[in-house]
Amino acid sequence: MDPLERLTNVFQKFPGIGPRQAGRFVQFLLRSSPALRRELAEGVRELGSDVHQCPSCLRYHTGKKGACGICADIHRDTSLLAVVASDTDLLALERSHTYQGHYFVLGGLLLLSSERTNGLHIKELLSSLPARIENGLKEIILAFPANPEGDSTAIRVREELTGFGNPSMKVSMLGRGLSTGSELEYADPETIKNALEGRH
Amino acid sequence: MDPLERLTNVFQKFPGIGPRQAGRFVQFLLRSSPALRRELAEGVRELGSDVHQCPSCLRYHTGKKGACGICADIHRDTSLLAVVASDTDLLALERSHTYQGHYFVLGGLLLLSSERTNGLHIKELLSSLPARIENGLKEIILAFPANPEGDSTAIRVREELTGFGNPSMKVSMLGRGLSTGSELEYADPETIKNALEGRH
Amino acid sequence: MDPLERLTNVFQKFPGIGPRQAGRFVQFLLRSSPALRRELAEGVRELGSDVHQCPSCLRYHTGKKGACGICADIHRDTSLLAVVASDTDLLALERSHTYQGHYFVLGGLLLLSSERTNGLHIKELLSSLPARIENGLKEIILAFPANPEGDSTAIRVREELTGFGNPSMKVSMLGRGLSTGSELEYADPETIKNALEGRH
Amino acid sequence: MDPLERLTNVFQKFPGIGPRQAGRFVQFLLRSSPALRRELAEGVRELGSDVHQCPSCLRYHTGKKGACGICADIHRDTSLLAVVASDTDLLALERSHTYQGHYFVLGGLLLLSSERTNGLHIKELLSSLPARIENGLKEIILAFPANPEGDSTAIRVREELTGFGNPSMKVSMLGRGLSTGSELEYADPETIKNALEGRH
After folding, report:
1. CA end-to-end span of chain B, whole Å?
2. Beta bridge mates, A52
């Protein structure tokens, strides 16, 4: 396989990128300056060396080795722990400027077609709980997307937490209902049911 | 103006129909059978004669003159009243098979650009309340869409209800949060805020 | 079936209209003024009475009974006859302000799944040709869309014209190639082939 | 700026990639295997070393240094030269399996807002012509997209070729008309004009 094809194949593995756009990426790079190509190659290489995984919440960060900025922040509320699927979802919660608790990044969602949880850091979550409870943890929020994968992950994590056993600790889920901009006419029955049950 | 143009103009007033599709409607009717054209003309004419507005909830129905099927149904829960913007929203709530209370169709939403509430049946709503309260009404659900028009209508109706004064009656709104299928990554901060506050 | 449902069903037959939009049309009419409903019902009724089919080109028009404005225009070029599928396609050709010849509306396209030509006015086209040839007709342009239905209609009409037999009369098709705004990258191989063959 | 942000910025320069997708690329790479990251960094680096520009048509290729496969192919027709904007457009013409001549990659299109032709290899095209004419060149096909940039580039290149002066050499453009799938109803007047003029 020639270098152009090989690089095209790598780009095709990127999320949301098909063969045509992968080819355009390669053409773009061919006509880019050597400086930009070097910056890209360097940047990709650095991900393996200058980026660290926070040992506490498991998200990736580029601070100095050790706990990330959120985990190290003594002003965050240790009574709340939001379990999220990915770093991206963690950032979405941060953007809402509402949540002041801690996070744990599970590293993915349970696939519907499979019972296997490999890749998901459920064990790491469980083994971190005693220290968190000692620190005042009162509620675990399963902050997963409102889709079947999110729901089955929530069911599984909830089971594991039950097995872990701690009656005083609450396990909650994000509220469901009308999202901003929703019109009733186009809302699915499930959403309307949630909106009616969650009325306040 | 010739008949084709005149009819095209009428179709352009239909919701979501531009000049091109209006023209295609006319071409479609030109080549349709006289029977279909007659059915359409008759059907439109009947809207004025065979369709009645329910005096209780103000929605349109085609039963015999008088209260509609829902208002006449003695098994519906008289302690709940959902105020909706339109017949279409009423049907969306019915499709969820969750709600067993009564309805009131306001006939629209408050426009943001205007303080005027004409067209909205707020007076009719208020004047129907004494009889409803006698019948056991305990909660009014403002079931409006989760958009600025829905919100300002809710504020206005709530004000009018306060003026009306009844401390024992609850006024609620539909729950907000993640709607079915929502991913956190694409949810707006307001929706995430609502989902966090509405966690359970 | 109740009147609302019956009218919804009629609107669902309109081109491009599904059940949901058909329902919105009915709701729109319910809340419209009686004047608008009357205008619509009248307009539909008039299609059967005040609109005539031109006996020469078979398009619908609203002038006085008899030949339409284009067929009656003595300044149009009688040496050219464009055969089009529909009134809408005829108007598209007129909008280009390039074509000064006459038209014939075939009334549809040959469906791929069927050999049947009923509904298509091929016989009427053929029987009109002797008079047209006497009037100077030199070229028949098969102005059909560039899709499989258009192509198979062109093949069929061409066969019938051959059977009809007139060696001096040319039968042509619309040029194929890059349409305005086309980028080579997204053009299909067939279009590029046509663009290369039609280079000038 | 931290490494994640810096790499996100590089991906944002990719064609069609906004900040959100750039961020997802970085998250994807963070969770990818070190092998895939290495393959990407290597592949990008190789573009500068293992990929050569053909001295004859100026496209990029990965054969051994020197003329590319098409320019070296003695079975290609030396009487035809297609001038294209980019390697991507060259490949689009190849995919049509119609064209057997040679190519020249101009390296872009003339921007409408500017008279400047820097970056475009017009000089290189002109200086290659004497040898090509000696080899039998009879026709230059300006194979540009059917948009304003393509048109103004064609006008400019044609001017330069005139200055160059060779009465026996034809300069042609790709045919315009209905592209595959076009319906007359949605075609713009310019395309219909071209389709009528290019009828055959």
Report:
1. 62
2. A61
Threshold 0.80, pTM exceeds = no
C156 close to C110: Cβ distance less than 8 angstroms: yes
How many CB pairs below 8 A link B and C?
A: 116
Identity of the residue in D10, D27, D51 whose CB atom sits nearest the CB atom of A43: D10
Q: Answer whether D85's CB lies under 8 Å from D110's CB.
A: no
ipTM of the modeled complex: 0.82
Q: What is the pLDDT along chain B (200 residues), one digit of tens a residue?
A: 778 889 999 999 998 899 889 988 998 898 888 999 999 999 999 988 888 899 999 999 887 888 999 999 999 999 999 999 999 899 999 999 999 999 999 988 987 766 666 679 999 999 999 999 999 999 999 999 999 999 999 999 999 998 766 677 899 999 999 999 999 988 999 999 999 999 98
- Residue labelled with tokens 């050790």: A66
Q: What domains sit in chain D, N to C, each tagged with a CATH number? A: 3-50 (1.10.8), 54-173 (3.40.1360.10)
Q: Are D70 and D102 in contact (CB under 8 A)?
A: yes
The structure tokens 């019956």 sit at C6
Q: Closest approach of chain D CAs to the CA of C33, in angstroms?
A: 33
Of B84, B144, B146, the CB nearest to A179: B146
Chain D neighbours, 3+ Cβ pairs < 8 A: A, C
What the block records as the tokens of A65 is 């080795």
Looking only at the bridges linking them, the beta strands covering C60-61 and C52-53 are: antiparallel
CB contact under 8 A, C16 and B24: yes
